[in-house]
Amino acid sequence: MTAYDDLMAYQRETEALSQVAGRLGWDQETMMPRGAAPQRAEEMAAMESVLHARRVDPRLGDWLAEIEDNALDDVGRANLRHIRRSFERASKVPAQLAARIARVTSEAQGIWAEARAADDFAAFAPTLTEVIALKREEGQALALGGDVYDAMLQDYEPGTTGAEIAGMFGALRPELSELRAAVRAAKAPPKLTGTFDEAAQMKLTRHLAKTFGYDMSMGRVDKAVHPFSSGSGLDVRITTRTNETDPFNCFYSTIHEVGHAAYEQGIDRAYLLTPLGRGVSMGVHESQSRIYENQIGRSRAFTAWLFGEMKEAFGDFGIPDSETFYRVVNRVSDGFIRTEADELQYNLHVLMRFDLERALVAHDLQVQDLEAAWNDRFEADFGFPVDKPSNGVLQDVHWSVGLLGYFPTYSLGNVYAGCLNEAMRAAVPGLDDQLAQGDTSTATAWLRDNVQSHGGLLEPRDVIARATGKPPSESPLLGYLRTKFTEIYEL
């Protein structure tokens, strides 16, 4: 065997073990009994110790040094790029630190959930302080004297920097705020009212998952507090949640997570259990979930079909026709929760979190001051005060599990989705006729061919540039939002 063959055989085992670790996380969120949390923390730490040891094994360095990149094809060179990046990053982080982070963040997730249920940020603050300190230590090891937050970003969006994101977000914020102000001053569409059987919601939500191409023979839909997608290749699972007075929460959470899952299921099977066999970045991943959820799922054409499906599932639910339903689905409403926010306001939630976590990492904001900082910024951006921590600083799981640098990828994904939607509409001019029949196959096939199938073959921004023919820009997203909400609200 060549050095490359040895390297890839070793990497397949690492990738398989990583999938096992991910399954432990899925189980913790869906099936695990609450009392098992302390043991699960030890299990997660043990798995991370094994994985970290494999990621820094000296044989990796020997193989990488022996292989000549120019002797490989594009796939081989891309595999080497990912393995080298992982090896260099993992080698900078002490094994004890990696295991401690895994243990503390596993425990922190349960502490966060209890604090959230009790609306008690003070109960979570000491644990969050420890998580932030550990992640700072890791970031400092990775940065080697450079910007710590930039080093953290590389785990989620390789090749980008905090300054680049701040520039893009700086262009988004004033236009979003101006459009939001105009919409709030205009007459709003009606609200959805009534109660909707939760068993019927789950039945329809599974139908929606299949409608968007989710292969249930290699996946499943479960319920969790915070919807998520887990796994890759032949085992990709999603979760959703129900609310008897808000079925859209269930349906659009499902469509969103199906976008993530479809990405993983759509990757070229030749890349299975290799570094190319998973989404290339969280920004590109989010582009798939957001375009499924919004540009397709909240379009006038698709909501016309969904209106009929809801009438079949729930009978007359007070909305007279599909056009009114489209406006109800896209109603801009005051709310605290990021995951439930409408398209127009969603990015303002993300921009706030980006600024706060960047300040936490830079020591410009302390954890004990985080709740007040959150509440002040929220009221400034949204015009009304936070009523309780579960609607504010405790609403998201991300910081509890150490995902610093993750939040900005949500808005990057929206930007990428805007670019992809513009290109897809140009390539498939009759798309709305199909969506009105509940047929998403052409749209999802275009995304699979142009984005999903590549997996990790290309760098994140290159994926979008290749699919659209130009570099990513916030302009298509802003234009799409401006056109859509100007029409709905008759501005």
UniProtKB/TrEMBL annotation:
<keyword id="KW-0121">Carboxypeptidase</keyword>
<keyword id="KW-0378">Hydrolase</keyword>
<comment type="function">
    <text>Broad specificity carboxypetidase that releases amino acids sequentially from the C-terminus, including neutral, aromatic, polar and basic residues.</text>
</comment>
<dbReference type="InterPro" id="IPR001333">
    <property type="entry name" value="Peptidase_M32_Taq"/>
</dbReference>
<protein>
    <recommendedName>
        <fullName>Metal-dependent carboxypeptidase</fullName>
        <ecNumber>3.4.17.19</ecNumber>
    </recommendedName>
</protein>
<keyword id="KW-0479">Metal-binding</keyword>
<comment type="similarity">
    <text>Belongs to the peptidase M32 family.</text>
</comment>
<keyword id="KW-0645">Protease</keyword>
<keyword id="KW-0482">Metalloprotease</keyword>
<dbReference type="Pfam" id="PF02074">
    <property type="entry name" value="Peptidase_M32"/>
</dbReference>
<dbReference type="GO" id="GO:0004180">
    <property type="term" value="F:carboxypeptidase activity"/>
</dbReference>
